[in-house]
Structure to design on (486 residues):
Protein backbone atom coordinates (compact mmCIF):
# COMPACT_ATOMS: atom_id res chain seq x y z
CA UNK A 1 0.00 0.00 0.00
CA UNK A 2 1.25 3.47 -0.75
CA UNK A 3 -1.58 5.89 0.05
CA UNK A 4 -1.43 7.48 3.48
CA UNK A 5 -5.06 7.96 4.42
CA UNK A 6 -5.36 10.21 7.43
CA UNK A 7 -6.96 13.37 6.08
CA UNK A 8 -10.50 12.81 7.25
CA UNK A 9 -11.50 13.98 10.72
CA UNK A 10 -13.85 11.36 12.12
CA UNK A 11 -14.02 12.44 15.75
CA UNK A 12 -17.73 13.21 15.41
CA UNK A 13 -18.63 11.18 12.32
CA UNK A 14 -18.46 7.61 10.98
CA UNK A 15 -15.20 6.43 9.52
CA UNK A 16 -14.66 7.29 5.87
CA UNK A 17 -13.20 4.40 3.92
CA UNK A 18 -11.76 4.01 0.43
CA UNK A 19 -11.80 0.42 -0.90
CA UNK A 20 -10.03 -1.11 -3.92
CA UNK A 21 -9.45 -4.60 -5.33
CA UNK A 22 -11.25 -7.89 -5.87
CA UNK A 23 -13.01 -7.79 -2.47
CA UNK A 24 -14.42 -4.28 -2.94
CA UNK A 25 -18.13 -5.05 -3.43
CA UNK A 26 -18.39 -7.30 -0.37
CA UNK A 27 -16.35 -4.98 1.83
CA UNK A 28 -18.30 -1.94 0.63
CA UNK A 29 -21.51 -3.65 1.73
CA UNK A 30 -19.97 -4.59 5.06
CA UNK A 31 -18.82 -1.02 5.72
CA UNK A 32 -22.19 0.43 4.74
CA UNK A 33 -23.94 -2.04 7.06
CA UNK A 34 -21.68 -0.77 9.85
CA UNK A 35 -22.77 2.81 9.16
CA UNK A 36 -19.47 3.88 7.64
CA UNK A 37 -19.09 6.33 4.76
CA UNK A 38 -17.56 4.85 1.60
CA UNK A 39 -15.82 7.58 -0.40
CA UNK A 40 -14.00 7.86 -3.74
CA UNK A 41 -15.90 4.81 -5.01
CA UNK A 42 -15.00 3.32 -8.39
CA UNK A 43 -17.41 3.42 -11.33
CA UNK A 44 -18.60 -0.21 -10.96
CA UNK A 45 -19.30 0.32 -7.27
CA UNK A 46 -21.29 3.49 -7.95
CA UNK A 47 -23.43 1.56 -10.47
CA UNK A 48 -23.83 -1.45 -8.20
CA UNK A 49 -25.10 0.34 -5.10
CA UNK A 50 -28.06 2.61 -4.54
CA UNK A 51 -25.90 5.03 -2.58
CA UNK A 52 -24.48 8.52 -2.96
CA UNK A 53 -20.73 8.08 -2.55
CA UNK A 54 -18.80 11.21 -1.67
CA UNK A 55 -15.43 12.39 -2.94
CA UNK A 56 -14.21 13.56 0.47
CA UNK A 57 -10.96 12.43 2.05
CA UNK A 58 -10.80 9.03 3.72
CA UNK A 59 -9.35 8.23 7.12
CA UNK A 60 -8.75 4.58 6.24
CA UNK A 61 -8.03 2.71 3.00
CA UNK A 62 -8.63 -0.99 2.37
CA UNK A 63 -6.79 -2.41 -0.62
CA UNK A 64 -6.40 -5.94 -1.97
CA UNK A 65 -2.81 -7.20 -1.80
CA UNK A 66 -0.92 -7.81 -5.04
CA UNK A 67 -1.18 -11.60 -4.60
CA UNK A 68 -4.96 -11.31 -3.98
CA UNK A 69 -4.69 -13.36 -0.78
CA UNK A 70 -6.01 -10.63 1.51
CA UNK A 71 -6.13 -6.90 2.13
CA UNK A 72 -3.99 -4.19 3.62
CA UNK A 73 -5.59 -1.57 5.85
CA UNK A 74 -3.91 1.80 6.25
CA UNK A 75 -4.83 5.13 7.80
CA UNK A 76 -5.58 6.84 11.09
CA UNK A 77 -4.79 4.47 13.99
CA UNK A 78 -8.32 4.34 15.44
CA UNK A 79 -9.84 3.82 11.99
CA UNK A 80 -7.35 1.05 11.18
CA UNK A 81 -8.21 -0.79 14.39
CA UNK A 82 -11.93 -0.55 13.63
CA UNK A 83 -11.52 -1.58 9.98
CA UNK A 84 -9.26 -4.52 10.80
CA UNK A 85 -11.84 -5.82 13.27
CA UNK A 86 -14.71 -5.29 10.81
CA UNK A 87 -12.93 -7.00 7.92
CA UNK A 88 -11.30 -9.66 10.06
CA UNK A 89 -14.66 -10.98 11.23
CA UNK A 90 -15.84 -12.19 7.79
CA UNK A 91 -14.86 -15.80 8.51
CA UNK A 92 -13.29 -18.12 11.05
CA UNK A 93 -10.05 -18.36 9.04
CA UNK A 94 -9.49 -14.64 8.49
CA UNK A 95 -6.26 -13.78 10.30
CA UNK A 96 -4.93 -10.30 10.97
CA UNK A 97 -1.68 -8.70 12.06
CA UNK A 98 -0.52 -5.17 12.87
CA UNK A 99 1.95 -3.63 10.42
CA UNK A 100 5.32 -2.90 12.12
CA UNK A 101 6.28 -0.48 9.32
CA UNK A 102 3.20 1.34 8.01
CA UNK A 103 3.34 3.85 5.18
CA UNK A 104 4.64 7.21 6.38
CA UNK A 105 6.55 5.90 9.40
CA UNK A 106 10.04 7.36 9.81
CA UNK A 107 12.95 5.30 11.13
CA UNK A 108 16.60 5.67 11.85
CA UNK A 109 17.64 2.32 10.47
CA UNK A 110 20.88 0.42 10.07
CA UNK A 111 22.10 -1.13 6.84
CA UNK A 112 22.66 -4.86 7.39
CA UNK A 113 23.32 -5.95 3.81
CA UNK A 114 23.61 -4.61 0.28
CA UNK A 115 22.45 -6.11 -3.01
CA UNK A 116 23.09 -5.15 -6.59
CA UNK A 117 20.49 -2.38 -6.55
CA UNK A 118 19.80 -1.51 -2.95
CA UNK A 119 20.34 -1.98 0.75
CA UNK A 120 18.56 -4.03 3.42
CA UNK A 121 17.79 -1.78 6.38
CA UNK A 122 17.06 -3.00 9.91
CA UNK A 123 14.03 -1.05 11.16
CA UNK A 124 13.74 -2.83 14.48
CA UNK A 125 10.75 -5.16 14.18
CA UNK A 126 11.28 -5.78 10.47
CA UNK A 127 13.60 -5.03 7.55
CA UNK A 128 13.12 -2.43 4.83
CA UNK A 129 14.55 -2.18 1.33
CA UNK A 130 16.25 1.03 0.21
CA UNK A 131 17.03 1.28 -3.52
CA UNK A 132 20.38 2.97 -4.13
CA UNK A 133 18.66 5.45 -6.43
CA UNK A 134 16.68 6.73 -3.42
CA UNK A 135 19.74 7.88 -1.45
CA UNK A 136 22.53 10.34 -2.12
CA UNK A 137 25.99 8.97 -1.56
CA UNK A 138 27.46 5.52 -1.12
CA UNK A 139 25.72 3.05 1.23
CA UNK A 140 27.62 0.32 3.04
CA UNK A 141 26.81 -2.34 5.61
CA UNK A 142 26.84 -0.79 9.08
CA UNK A 143 25.72 2.65 7.93
CA UNK A 144 22.85 4.39 9.71
CA UNK A 145 20.23 6.03 7.53
CA UNK A 146 17.04 8.01 8.15
CA UNK A 147 14.22 6.67 5.98
CA UNK A 148 10.45 6.82 5.53
CA UNK A 149 8.24 3.90 4.51
CA UNK A 150 6.90 4.47 1.01
CA UNK A 151 5.23 1.09 0.39
CA UNK A 152 4.25 -1.40 3.09
CA UNK A 153 4.57 -5.18 2.65
CA UNK A 154 2.24 -7.98 3.74
CA UNK A 155 3.87 -10.35 6.26
CA UNK A 156 3.10 -13.48 4.24
CA UNK A 157 5.08 -12.28 1.20
CA UNK A 158 8.82 -12.27 0.58
CA UNK A 159 8.77 -8.50 0.07
CA UNK A 160 10.25 -5.95 2.44
CA UNK A 161 8.70 -2.52 2.99
CA UNK A 162 10.07 -0.05 0.43
CA UNK A 163 11.78 2.90 2.13
CA UNK A 164 13.06 6.22 0.84
CA UNK A 165 15.27 8.97 2.20
CA UNK A 166 12.76 11.61 1.06
CA UNK A 167 10.44 12.44 3.96
CA UNK A 168 6.91 13.62 3.13
CA UNK A 169 3.58 14.09 4.89
CA UNK A 170 0.91 12.48 2.74
CA UNK A 171 -2.88 12.38 2.94
CA UNK A 172 -5.85 11.41 0.87
CA UNK A 173 -6.02 14.78 -0.90
CA UNK A 174 -2.69 16.51 -0.32
CA UNK A 175 0.95 15.72 0.28
CA UNK A 176 3.46 18.13 1.79
CA UNK A 177 7.04 17.73 0.58
CA UNK A 178 10.13 19.47 1.93
CA UNK A 179 11.18 22.55 0.00
CA UNK A 180 9.77 25.71 -1.54
CA UNK A 181 7.84 26.36 -4.72
CA UNK A 182 4.40 26.55 -6.28
CA UNK A 183 1.78 23.86 -5.62
CA UNK A 184 1.65 20.95 -8.05
CA UNK A 185 -1.13 18.49 -8.91
CA UNK A 186 -0.65 14.78 -9.57
CA UNK A 187 -3.09 14.47 -12.49
CA UNK A 188 -3.11 14.21 -16.28
CA UNK A 189 -5.94 16.73 -16.52
CA UNK A 190 -3.96 19.92 -17.15
CA UNK A 191 -7.03 22.14 -17.06
CA UNK A 192 -8.16 20.77 -13.70
CA UNK A 193 -4.61 21.14 -12.39
CA UNK A 194 -4.40 24.81 -13.33
CA UNK A 195 -7.78 25.47 -11.71
CA UNK A 196 -6.76 23.71 -8.50
CA UNK A 197 -3.46 25.58 -8.28
CA UNK A 198 -5.38 28.85 -8.61
CA UNK A 199 -7.87 27.79 -5.95
CA UNK A 200 -5.04 27.02 -3.54
CA UNK A 201 -4.29 30.72 -3.20
CA UNK A 202 -7.89 31.30 -2.10
CA UNK A 203 -7.78 28.83 0.77
CA UNK A 204 -7.65 30.17 4.31
CA UNK A 205 -4.61 28.06 5.18
CA UNK A 206 -1.12 27.75 3.75
CA UNK A 207 1.62 25.18 3.80
CA UNK A 208 4.01 25.66 6.74
CA UNK A 209 7.46 27.09 6.12
CA UNK A 210 9.79 24.62 4.51
CA UNK A 211 7.00 22.56 2.91
CA UNK A 212 5.53 22.55 -0.60
CA UNK A 213 2.00 21.43 -1.59
CA UNK A 214 1.35 18.50 -3.93
CA UNK A 215 -2.34 17.78 -4.52
CA UNK A 216 -3.66 14.35 -5.56
CA UNK A 217 -5.95 13.80 -8.53
CA UNK A 218 -8.89 13.28 -6.13
CA UNK A 219 -8.40 16.87 -4.94
CA UNK A 220 -9.49 18.17 -8.38
CA UNK A 221 -13.03 16.94 -7.57
CA UNK A 222 -13.15 17.99 -3.92
CA UNK A 223 -14.92 21.05 -2.50
CA UNK A 224 -13.12 24.15 -1.23
CA UNK A 225 -14.09 23.21 2.33
CA UNK A 226 -12.62 19.72 1.91
CA UNK A 227 -9.41 21.10 0.41
CA UNK A 228 -8.98 23.62 3.19
CA UNK A 229 -9.67 21.06 5.90
CA UNK A 230 -7.27 18.56 4.35
CA UNK A 231 -4.47 21.09 4.03
CA UNK A 232 -5.04 22.36 7.57
CA UNK A 233 -4.82 18.88 9.07
CA UNK A 234 -1.82 17.92 6.96
CA UNK A 235 -0.01 21.11 7.94
CA UNK A 236 -0.57 20.25 11.61
CA UNK A 237 0.82 16.79 11.01
CA UNK A 238 3.84 18.24 9.22
CA UNK A 239 4.55 20.39 12.27
CA UNK A 240 4.20 17.36 14.56
CA UNK A 241 6.52 15.32 12.34
CA UNK A 242 9.14 18.06 12.29
CA UNK A 243 9.06 18.17 16.09
CA UNK A 244 9.27 14.36 16.36
CA UNK A 245 12.33 14.02 14.16
CA UNK A 246 14.59 16.22 16.24
CA UNK A 247 18.27 15.96 15.27
CA UNK A 248 18.59 15.51 11.53
CA UNK A 249 15.08 16.78 10.90
CA UNK A 250 13.61 16.25 7.46
CA UNK A 251 16.93 15.59 5.77
CA UNK A 252 16.69 11.85 5.34
CA UNK A 253 19.84 9.98 4.40
CA UNK A 254 23.17 8.91 5.81
CA UNK A 255 24.17 12.07 7.63
CA UNK A 256 20.79 12.52 9.32
CA UNK A 257 20.42 9.24 11.13
CA UNK A 258 20.87 8.96 14.88
CA UNK A 259 20.71 5.81 17.01
CA UNK A 260 19.55 2.88 14.90
CA UNK A 261 17.28 1.07 14.65
CA UNK A 262 14.68 3.43 16.09
CA UNK A 263 11.14 4.40 15.06
CA UNK A 264 10.93 8.20 15.17
CA UNK A 265 7.38 8.82 14.00
CA UNK A 266 4.36 6.84 12.80
CA UNK A 267 1.63 9.29 11.75
CA UNK A 268 -0.50 6.45 10.37
CA UNK A 269 -1.11 2.82 11.26
CA UNK A 270 -1.44 -0.33 9.21
CA UNK A 271 -2.83 -3.87 9.42
CA UNK A 272 -2.97 -6.93 7.19
CA UNK A 273 -5.84 -9.42 6.89
CA UNK A 274 -5.30 -12.77 5.19
CA UNK A 275 -8.47 -14.48 3.96
CA UNK A 276 -8.75 -18.24 4.21
CA UNK A 277 -11.11 -20.26 2.03
CA UNK A 278 -14.06 -20.03 4.41
CA UNK A 279 -13.62 -16.28 4.64
CA UNK A 280 -13.66 -15.97 0.84
CA UNK A 281 -16.94 -17.87 0.71
CA UNK A 282 -18.27 -15.65 3.50
CA UNK A 283 -17.42 -12.64 1.35
CA UNK A 284 -19.28 -14.34 -1.52
CA UNK A 285 -22.46 -14.36 0.56
CA UNK A 286 -22.13 -10.67 1.36
CA UNK A 287 -21.50 -9.85 -2.30
CA UNK A 288 -24.39 -12.05 -3.50
CA UNK A 289 -26.82 -9.79 -1.66
CA UNK A 290 -25.66 -6.94 -3.89
CA UNK A 291 -25.06 -8.42 -7.34
CA UNK A 292 -24.65 -11.63 -9.35
CA UNK A 293 -22.00 -13.75 -7.65
CA UNK A 294 -21.00 -17.21 -8.82
CA UNK A 295 -20.10 -19.96 -6.32
CA UNK A 296 -16.48 -19.51 -5.31
CA UNK A 297 -16.29 -15.97 -6.73
CA UNK A 298 -13.50 -14.73 -4.45
CA UNK A 299 -11.79 -18.13 -4.25
CA UNK A 300 -11.42 -18.19 -8.04
CA UNK A 301 -10.40 -14.54 -8.34
CA UNK A 302 -7.67 -15.07 -5.75
CA UNK A 303 -6.04 -17.69 -7.97
CA UNK A 304 -4.81 -15.56 -10.87
CA UNK A 305 -5.57 -12.45 -12.91
CA UNK A 306 -6.82 -14.63 -15.78
CA UNK A 307 -9.19 -16.44 -13.44
CA UNK A 308 -10.40 -13.09 -12.10
CA UNK A 309 -11.23 -11.92 -15.62
CA UNK A 310 -13.00 -15.21 -16.30
CA UNK A 311 -15.26 -14.72 -13.28
CA UNK A 312 -16.23 -11.25 -14.50
CA UNK A 313 -17.06 -12.67 -17.93
CA UNK A 314 -19.23 -15.48 -16.56
CA UNK A 315 -21.16 -13.20 -14.21
CA UNK A 316 -21.75 -10.66 -16.98
CA UNK A 317 -23.42 -13.37 -19.10
CA UNK A 318 -25.57 -15.21 -16.60
CA UNK A 319 -26.42 -15.85 -12.96
CA UNK A 320 -24.53 -19.07 -12.16
CA UNK A 321 -25.46 -21.12 -9.10
CA UNK A 322 -24.68 -24.49 -7.55
CA UNK A 323 -21.47 -25.62 -5.85
CA UNK A 324 -17.96 -24.30 -6.29
CA UNK A 325 -16.74 -25.85 -9.59
CA UNK A 326 -13.23 -26.84 -8.50
CA UNK A 327 -12.72 -29.33 -11.33
CA UNK A 328 -13.76 -26.81 -13.99
CA UNK A 329 -11.61 -24.10 -12.51
CA UNK A 330 -8.60 -26.40 -12.31
CA UNK A 331 -9.19 -27.69 -15.87
CA UNK A 332 -9.22 -24.10 -17.14
CA UNK A 333 -6.54 -22.40 -15.08
CA UNK A 334 -4.59 -25.26 -13.46
CA UNK A 335 -3.00 -27.07 -11.87
CA UNK A 336 -3.12 -30.11 -14.15
CA UNK A 337 -1.31 -33.42 -13.94
CA UNK A 338 2.36 -32.87 -14.65
CA UNK A 339 2.38 -29.27 -13.40
CA UNK A 340 4.69 -28.16 -10.62
CA UNK A 341 3.05 -26.47 -7.63
CA UNK A 342 4.56 -24.87 -4.55
CA UNK A 343 3.36 -25.71 -1.05
CA UNK A 344 2.92 -22.28 0.56
CA UNK A 345 2.89 -23.04 4.29
CA UNK A 346 1.47 -20.02 6.12
CA UNK A 347 2.24 -19.54 9.80
CA UNK A 348 -0.11 -17.99 12.39
CA UNK A 349 2.46 -15.28 13.17
CA UNK A 350 1.87 -13.90 9.65
CA UNK A 351 4.83 -15.10 7.58
CA UNK A 352 4.73 -17.81 4.93
CA UNK A 353 7.41 -20.38 4.16
CA UNK A 354 7.74 -22.67 1.17
CA UNK A 355 7.84 -26.40 1.76
CA UNK A 356 9.18 -26.77 -1.75
CA UNK A 357 7.57 -27.61 -5.06
CA UNK A 358 6.34 -30.94 -6.31
CA UNK A 359 4.77 -32.49 -9.36
CA UNK A 360 1.03 -33.10 -9.59
CA UNK A 361 0.76 -36.85 -10.18
CA UNK A 362 -3.02 -37.10 -9.95
CA UNK A 363 -6.00 -34.77 -9.90
CA UNK A 364 -9.70 -35.48 -9.61
CA UNK A 365 -12.86 -33.45 -9.06
CA UNK A 366 -11.93 -32.49 -5.48
CA UNK A 367 -8.23 -32.99 -4.88
CA UNK A 368 -4.72 -33.23 -6.24
CA UNK A 369 -1.73 -35.35 -5.28
CA UNK A 370 1.76 -33.86 -5.25
CA UNK A 371 4.97 -35.86 -5.20
CA UNK A 372 8.31 -34.44 -4.07
CA UNK A 373 11.77 -36.01 -4.26
CA UNK A 374 13.76 -35.35 -1.10
CA UNK A 375 17.44 -34.98 -0.33
CA UNK A 376 19.13 -36.69 2.56
CA UNK A 377 20.06 -35.27 5.95
CA UNK A 378 18.41 -34.87 9.31
CA UNK A 379 15.21 -36.51 10.49
CA UNK A 380 11.52 -36.07 9.77
CA UNK A 381 9.95 -33.72 12.31
CA UNK A 382 7.86 -35.67 14.79
CA UNK A 383 8.37 -39.03 13.13
CA UNK A 384 11.94 -39.31 14.39
CA UNK A 385 13.21 -41.31 11.39
CA UNK A 386 16.17 -40.46 9.18
CA UNK A 387 15.66 -38.43 6.05
CA UNK A 388 17.65 -40.19 3.33
CA UNK A 389 18.57 -39.50 -0.27
CA UNK A 390 15.95 -41.00 -2.58
CA UNK A 391 13.05 -40.55 -0.14
CA UNK A 392 9.78 -39.21 -1.52
CA UNK A 393 6.92 -37.26 0.00
CA UNK A 394 3.45 -37.81 -1.44
CA UNK A 395 0.84 -35.29 -0.31
CA UNK A 396 -2.86 -35.26 -1.11
CA UNK A 397 -4.58 -31.88 -0.94
CA UNK A 398 -8.35 -31.79 -1.02
CA UNK A 399 -9.87 -28.38 -1.74
CA UNK A 400 -11.58 -27.03 1.38
CA UNK A 401 -10.38 -29.69 3.82
CA UNK A 402 -8.97 -28.69 7.22
CA UNK A 403 -6.07 -31.13 7.00
CA UNK A 404 -3.82 -32.93 4.56
CA UNK A 405 -1.64 -36.08 4.81
CA UNK A 406 1.95 -36.49 3.64
CA UNK A 407 3.28 -40.04 3.28
CA UNK A 408 7.06 -40.44 3.41
CA UNK A 409 8.63 -43.42 1.63
CA UNK A 410 12.16 -44.63 1.05
CA UNK A 411 13.64 -45.27 -2.38
CA UNK A 412 12.09 -48.76 -2.45
CA UNK A 413 8.60 -47.50 -1.68
CA UNK A 414 8.46 -48.61 1.96
CA UNK A 415 6.42 -46.24 4.14
CA UNK A 416 8.52 -44.45 6.76
CA UNK A 417 5.58 -42.60 8.31
CA UNK A 418 2.59 -40.33 7.66
CA UNK A 419 2.35 -36.73 8.84
CA UNK A 420 -1.14 -35.19 8.90
CA UNK A 421 -1.05 -31.41 9.04
CA UNK A 422 -4.04 -29.56 10.57
CA UNK A 423 -4.55 -26.20 8.88
CA UNK A 424 -7.07 -23.68 7.61
CA UNK A 425 -9.10 -25.03 4.66
CA UNK A 426 -6.78 -25.89 1.78
CA UNK A 427 -6.94 -23.86 -1.44
CA UNK A 428 -5.40 -25.36 -4.59
CA UNK A 429 -4.43 -22.43 -6.80
CA UNK A 430 -2.87 -22.73 -10.28
CA UNK A 431 0.72 -22.40 -9.06
CA UNK A 432 0.53 -23.10 -5.35
CA UNK A 433 -1.38 -24.80 -2.56
CA UNK A 434 -2.06 -22.37 0.28
CA UNK A 435 -3.28 -22.55 3.88
CA UNK A 436 -2.18 -21.46 7.36
CA UNK A 437 -0.72 -24.12 9.61
CA UNK A 438 -2.53 -24.44 12.94
CA UNK A 439 0.36 -26.13 14.78
CA UNK A 440 -1.38 -29.23 16.13
CA UNK A 441 -0.70 -32.31 13.96
CA UNK A 442 -1.37 -36.06 13.97
CA UNK A 443 1.31 -38.61 13.05
CA UNK A 444 1.11 -42.25 12.08
CA UNK A 445 4.39 -44.06 12.52
CA UNK A 446 5.51 -46.93 10.31
CA UNK A 447 4.53 -49.45 13.03
CA UNK A 448 0.96 -48.09 13.08
CA UNK A 449 1.30 -46.02 16.25
CA UNK A 450 -0.77 -42.81 16.16
CA UNK A 451 0.54 -39.72 17.93
CA UNK A 452 -0.84 -36.20 18.35
CA UNK A 453 1.73 -33.40 18.68
CA UNK A 454 2.20 -29.66 19.17
CA UNK A 455 -0.96 -28.83 21.14
CA UNK A 456 1.30 -26.67 23.29
CA UNK A 457 2.35 -24.62 20.24
CA UNK A 458 -1.30 -24.01 19.37
CA UNK A 459 -2.01 -22.91 22.95
CA UNK A 460 0.96 -20.53 22.80
CA UNK A 461 -0.30 -19.07 19.51
CA UNK A 462 -3.70 -18.41 21.09
CA UNK A 463 -2.06 -16.74 24.08
CA UNK A 464 0.08 -14.59 21.73
CA UNK A 465 -3.05 -13.46 19.88
CA UNK A 466 -2.04 -15.09 16.57
CA UNK A 467 -4.86 -17.65 16.53
CA UNK A 468 -8.41 -16.72 17.64
CA UNK A 469 -9.89 -19.17 20.14
CA UNK A 470 -12.75 -20.31 17.80
CA UNK A 471 -10.18 -21.22 15.14
CA UNK A 472 -8.03 -23.01 17.70
CA UNK A 473 -11.02 -25.00 18.93
CA UNK A 474 -11.77 -26.05 15.35
CA UNK A 475 -8.16 -27.22 14.95
CA UNK A 476 -8.37 -29.28 18.14
CA UNK A 477 -11.65 -30.83 16.99
CA UNK A 478 -10.13 -31.78 13.62
CA UNK A 479 -7.09 -33.29 15.34
CA UNK A 480 -9.30 -35.38 17.63
CA UNK A 481 -11.28 -36.69 14.65
CA UNK A 482 -8.04 -37.63 12.87
CA UNK A 483 -6.75 -39.48 15.94
CA UNK A 484 -9.88 -41.61 15.97
CA UNK A 485 -9.84 -42.19 12.23
CA UNK A 486 -6.19 -43.23 11.99
Amino acid sequence: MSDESTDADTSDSPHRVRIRGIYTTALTQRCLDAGWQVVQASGPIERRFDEAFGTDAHDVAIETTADRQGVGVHGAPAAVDAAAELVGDVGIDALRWADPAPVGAVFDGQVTDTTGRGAVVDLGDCEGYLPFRRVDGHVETGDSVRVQVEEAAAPWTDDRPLVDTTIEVAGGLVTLVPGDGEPTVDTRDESAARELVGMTDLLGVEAPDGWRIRWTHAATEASMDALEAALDRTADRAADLTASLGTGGLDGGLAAAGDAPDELAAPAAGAWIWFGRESRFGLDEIRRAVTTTMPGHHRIKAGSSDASAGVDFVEALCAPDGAFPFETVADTFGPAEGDDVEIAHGKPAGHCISLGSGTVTDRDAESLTVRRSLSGGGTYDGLGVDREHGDTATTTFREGRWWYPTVYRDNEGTVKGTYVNVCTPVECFPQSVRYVDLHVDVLKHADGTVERVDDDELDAAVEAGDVPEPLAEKARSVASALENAL
Observations:
- The two ends are 45 Å apart (CA to CA).
- The chain has four domains: 1-102+267-324, 106-167+252-265, 169-245, 334-485.
